[in-house]
Amino acid sequence: MPDFHRYRVPGGCYFFTVNLLERRGNALLNDRIDLLRDAVRRVRRSRPFTIDAWVVLPDHLHCVWTLPPGDDDFSARWRLIKTFFVRGLPRTERLSRVRRAGGERGIWQRRFWEHAIRDDEDYAAHMDYVHFNPVKHGLAASPADWPYSTFKSCVDRGLYPEDWIGVGNRNLSAGELGE
Fold it and tell me: Using an 8 Å Cβ cutoff, are 116 and 12 in contact?
């Protein structure tokens, strides 16, 4: 088994991609958006972080977070978000023998993709990637049309014009399978 290490920067800013285990034809994240929002709120109460950007698509999500100074434990936050979300769901998913033996639910992929933001240009590219993603996947004509995104709050904060339709590098490596 490979020796997997995550790059950690205390108080850092990170981009994440988190995928459902069964992605094809699965709209669970949008169907249960209130449950996901509640899970995130619960975690932020005990382990604060700033949400710079977030988009929830039917089968995966992307976000940019900034952690508090001295804190680099994004893994615990994701473990808790996934756990709280899953606890609110009925046990109807198909389970592999391995997941059943380990007492796991078959909702999330085990890992997540993370990238430590390096500079302002990297930050802007990942913010754009998050907000353009519904358009990329054919779910919305423009970022402003997608309801499960921080795009409108970023417009309110003056980070984007309301009619922004995406610019720059849309082929960013972002942890989505099949890209």
Answer: yes
* Phi, psi angles (nearest 5°) of residue 63: -155, 160
Residue 129, in any domain of the structure: no
**What's the token pair of residue 37?**
């929002």
Q: How many residues comprise the chain?
A: 179
CB 55 within 8 A of CB 134: yes
Q: Are 28 and 107 in contact (CB under 8 A)?
A: yes
Cβ contacts of 141 within 8 Å, gap of 6 or more: 135
Q: How many domains is the chain built from?
A: 1
Q: Which among 47, 82, 83 is positioned nearest to 67, based on CA atoms? A: 47
Q: What is the pLDDT of residues 79-129, one digit of tens each?
A: 999 999 998 876 665 655 555 555 565 678 888 999 999 999 999 999 999
Which amino acid makes up residue 48?
Answer: P
Whether 60 is in a domain gets the answer: yes
Beta bridge partners of 60: 19
φ, ψ for residue 44, nearest 5 deg: -65, -25
Answer yes or no: is 4 within a domain. Answer: no
What's the whole-model pTM score?
A: 0.86
Which of the residues are catalytic? 148
pLDDT the model gives residue 178: 40
Query: 46 phi and psi, to 5 degrees?
Result: -95, -25
